[in-house]
């Protein structure tokens, strides 16, 4: 809950339960309903209202109206003696407040952890159109359009605004609600979610040029889904660029107002296995091309960015790629076919879309393969069988590590949606903050080892500081 959301039920509780402590109300207690109304007005104007708070709004307004006559008594009139409530009344008030507080507690405005590096972080979003490719998943003839977001070391000015977690959240939130099988309005409060990045802030040139990391999300994912990881890397001197794969993402909103929903036919369900596999390979081939095209544009902008943001910012000799799920497969495919990729990191890489030639020939770059326990322990799954076929063909170092107590979506920001994330299938039993700490630590250590020549002991085997990490013997 946000600050004012906490104060409102706190002061209501003091007012309701004061008679349990002392029978006579003192003036400071009598003023609390009015003070709570003032808090409510400030909450509405500063933090913004949300449906989870409606029961508390009703209780606050009702209490204010009922107690207003006492509050308006002239000075010198007797202060009413407050009757000590009976146990049924006390229990009823406690239950009423408890239920009212439960909703905003179980569905908080998500909080993205503050990054730990020395740099402030800026973020910017831009649209790209690849004139050389048509989009087979669009309705009618259309060129391939992408929304791309970058996080980078920044020098924010005093008037720079904090960036939202997701742009166009009022359009995006209903789609995300559907993803977790909830009504469209269920996540409307995501419009209030903020990051720790400054919107369109000036890049910090002092530590540059910076290594570049390209990120690919999973099927029905979105470019902001790993903001905790993007910010951490950027705060330590990386430029991270996340590509929203149109029609494979859960939803894409373009600056002109065009909305491109997920196209289920791109990864069809209920079809024969060979048909599904062919569709998956076609999809990931497109996503690998999205990564390559984005890199082409950034290469041009590094020489001369019309907006001035990326000019000279990137170290194009140090390019990495990382991806989650289907995006992990796209990263493998991209690095196998584009020598500009110098290192790769995948999280629960989906191997079905990886081409036969890459499965049989591997990749030459160093890789870090992270798996959730949920995926790793399905020993006989098709994904694990394909990975077992692929892994012996690698020619560089490639640790394979499972994070115990995790689920597929622990590799994203989604567990921050609710403390009920495990019940919603969005996380495993391991504490969410600990999961993100582990992911950030290993991600940064891997890319630092490859790009800044800082060797790490984390990849040599088990580490006492991270007992949750299981090193796979392959």
Structural account:
The chain is α/β, with parallel strands linked by helices. It has two domains: 3-106, no CATH class; 120-471, 3-Layer(aba) Sandwich (Rossmann fold), CATH 3.40.50. Helix content is 37%, strand content 18%. The protein is built from 13 helices and 14 strands. It has helices spanning 3-17, 27-30, 32-47, 54-71, 87-106, 169-179, 227-235, 273-303, 326-337, 356-361, 373-376, 382-390, 432-451, and strands at 120-134, 143-155, 162-164, 194-199, 202-203, 210-216, 239-244, 251-253, 259-261, 314-324, 343-347, 367-372, 400-403, 469-471. The strands form two sheets. Strands 1, 2, 3, 4, 5, 6, 7, 10, 11, 12, 13 and 14 form a twelve-stranded mixed sheet that branches. The chain has a two-stranded antiparallel sheet with strand order 8-9. Strand 1 and strand 2 (143-155) form a beta hairpin. Helix 1 packs antiparallel against helix 5 (87-106) and helix 8 crosses helix 9. It starts with a helix and ends with a strand. The mean pLDDT is 92.
Fourth-level CATH superfamily of the largest domain: Alpha/Beta hydrolase fold, catalytic domain
Order of helices and strands: HHHHHEEEHEEEHEEEHEHEHEHHEHE
Largest sheet: 12 strands, mixed
Percent range of helical residues: 25-40%
CATH architecture of the largest domain: 3-Layer(aba) Sandwich
Protein traits:
474 residues; alpha/beta; 13 helices; Rossmann fold
């Amino acid at each position: 809950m946000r600050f004012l959301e906490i104060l409102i039920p706190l002061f209501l509780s003091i007012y309701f339960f004061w008679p349990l402590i002392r029978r006579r109300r003192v003036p400071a207690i009598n003023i609390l309903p009015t003070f709570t109304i003032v808090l409510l007005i400030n909450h509405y104007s500063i933090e913004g209202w949300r449906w989870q708070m409606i029961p508390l709004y009703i209780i606050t307004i009702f209490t204010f109206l009922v107690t207003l006559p006492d509050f308006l008594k002239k000075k010198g009139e007797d202060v009413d003696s407050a009757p000590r409530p009976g146990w049924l009344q006390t229990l009823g008030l406690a239950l009423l407040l408890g239920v009212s507080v439960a909703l905003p507690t179980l569905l908080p405005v998500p909080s993205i952890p503050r990054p730990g590096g020395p740099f402030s972080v800026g973020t910017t979003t831009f649209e790209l159109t690849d004139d050389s490719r048509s989009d087979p998943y669009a309705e009618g003839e259309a060129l391939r359009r992408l929304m791309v977001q970058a996080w980078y070391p920044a020098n924010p000015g005093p008037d720079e605004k904090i960036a939202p977690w997701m742009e166009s959240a009022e359009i995006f939130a209903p789609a995300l609600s559907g993803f977790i099988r909830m009504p469209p309005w269920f996540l409307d409060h995501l419009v209030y979610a903020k990051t720790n990045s400054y919107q369109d802030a000036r890049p910090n040139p002092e530590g540059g040029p910076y290594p570049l990391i390209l990120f690919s999300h999973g099927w029905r994912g979105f470019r902001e889904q790993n903001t905790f990881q993007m910010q951490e890397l950027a705060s330590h001197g990386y430029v991270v660029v996340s590509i929203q794969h149109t029609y494979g993402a859960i939803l894409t909103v373009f600056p002109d107002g065009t909305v491109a929903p997920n196209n289920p036919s791109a990864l069809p369900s209920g079809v024969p296995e060979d048909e599904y596999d062919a569709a998956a390979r076609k999809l990931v081939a497109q996503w690998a091309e999205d990564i390559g095209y984005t890199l082409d544009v950034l290469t041009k902008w590094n020489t001369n960015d019309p907006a001035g943001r990326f000019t000279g910012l990137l170290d194009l000799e140090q390019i990495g790629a990382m991806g989650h799920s289907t995006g992990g497969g796209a990263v493998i495919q991209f690095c196998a076919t584009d020598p500009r990729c110098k290192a790769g990191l995948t999280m629960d890489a989906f191997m079905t879309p990886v081409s036969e030639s890459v499965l049989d020939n591997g990749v030459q770059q160093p890789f870090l393969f992270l798996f959730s326990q949920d995926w790793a322990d399905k020993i006989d799954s098709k994904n694990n069988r394909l990975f077992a076929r692929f892994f012996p063909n690698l020619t560089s170092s490639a640790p394979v590590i499972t994070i115990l107590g995790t689920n597929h979506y622990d590799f994203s920001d989604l567990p921050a949606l609710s403390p009920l994330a495990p019940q919603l299938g969005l996380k495993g039993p391991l504490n969410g903050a600990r999961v993100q700490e582990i992911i950030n630590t290993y991600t940064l250590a891997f890319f630092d080892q490859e790009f800044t020549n800082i060797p790490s002991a984390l990849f040599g085997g088990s580490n006492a500081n991270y007992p949750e990490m299981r090193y796979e013997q392959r």
